[in-house]
Amino acid sequence: MPCNIITTSEKIDINGTLFSGQSFLWNNIDNSADYYGILINKVPVIMRQLSVNDLEVYTTNNTIGGLNISDFIHQYFTLDIDTNAVFPDGFSRLYPELWQLLTKYFSVRIMRQDPFETMISFMCAQGIGMRLIRKQVSMLLENYGEKRSVSFLGQEIILYQFPSPQRLAEADPLALSSCTNNNRLRALNIIKVSRGVAEGRIKLDYLSDRRLPLSELRSILCQNEGIGYKIADCIALFGLGRFDAFPIDTHVKQYLGKWFNSTTALRSLSSATYLALDREARIILNPDLAGYAGHILFHCWRREIKGLRTF
C-alpha cells in the first residue's frame, strides 16, 4: 500500500480522537499501538501518528470520496476548524482551572463520519460502555459487512466495510440482536431505520443540509423508534457535521453541574431536563460550536475527573 506523509497546521491526537466515544469503527492493526485501520467507502485506510502535526497514511487509492488523500484526511478530521475559536472569548478567564485541564485535549478532533454508519453505531450502542460498544459494532461489521483482505507491511490484514442500509434492512432480528447486546427490540429498530434509508423515506442528504434548523433535524430523527434526543444529537454532531448539536449523557450532565454550577444538572435526565441543559450549554459555549467544545469537555471529564483509561 502506498504511503502518504500528511502534515497538518492544526494539532491532532489520533488515538484520543479515534477512541473518544465518537466512532467505534477504527481498530488497532494486529494489536499494534501504532497503526489504526478502517475501510472508508470500501477504500482501506491505515494510519499512524508521527507527531502532533504529521500522519503516516497508507491507502490503496489516490482519492476517497472525490478528494485526494491529504484533502480527505483534513476534511475527515476537521483540520479546517481552528480549535482556538471553539471556545468563546473570555472562557479561559471565567474558568481558569478548567482551562488548564482542557488545553491538553484541544488536539482531539471531531470527525466527519458517514451519517448512516454513525446512526446505526449509536443505535447499537445505547446504554452500554465503550468497550462493549466497540465489541458490538465489530460484530456488526464481521456478520454483515463486506470483508476485504489487504497486504500491509508483509502481512495480510482483514478489514470490514460497514454494512449497507439494504443489507441491514434484510437482517433477521434475532440474529442481529447478537450485535445489539441481545436486545431484540433495538435490532428491530435498526432494521426499520435501515429500511427507511434504503427505501428513501429517511433522506440523509436532506438531513445533511446545514440550513435545516437543528431543532427540526432532531425532531425528524426522533420520529424513528430507537432514536431519542441524545442519539439524534450524536448523529447530527458526528455524522452530519452539525457542530452545534450538543449530545447530553450522564457524563455531560455531571460536568455541567460540577464545572458550570448548573442546578438543572441535579435533576434526572428527562426530556425536559435534556432540553434545559441544552439551552444552558449554548449560553456557556459558542452556540455554533457547542457540540465540538462539548466533546472536548466530555473527553477531558472522563480522563481527568473520572480517571477512565479504556475507550
Radius of gyration: 19 Å
Low-confidence parts: none
Which class of the domain at 1-80 in CATH terms? Answer: Alpha Beta
Mean pLDDT: 94
Strand ordering within the main sheet: 1-5-4-3-2
Secondary structure tally, helices: 15
Known CATH architecture of the domain at 1-80? 2-Layer Sandwich
Please report the total strand number as a whole number. 9
Helix fraction bin:
40-55%
CATH fold-level topology of the domain at 1-80: TATA-Binding Protein
In short:
The chain is α+β, with helices and mostly antiparallel strands and 311 residues long.
Report what the structure shows.
By secondary structure, the chain is of the alpha+beta class. The protein has a domain at 1-80: TATA-Binding Protein, CATH 3.30.310. It contains 15 helices and 9 strands. The chain has helices spanning 14-18, 69-76, 91-94, 96-102, 115-125, 130-144, 165-169, 173-176, 184-198, 204-207, 214-221, 229-239, 250-260, 271-284, 290-305; strands at residues 3-7, 27-28, 36-40, 43-51, 54-59, 63-64, 67-68, 146-152, 155-161. Strands 1-5-4-3-2 form a 5-stranded antiparallel β-sheet, covered by helices on one side. The chain has a two-stranded antiparallel sheet with strand order 6-7. Strand 6 (63-64) and strand 7 (67-68) form a beta hairpin. Helix 11 crosses helix 12 (229-239). The longest helix is centred in the last third of the chain and has 16 residues, at 290-305.
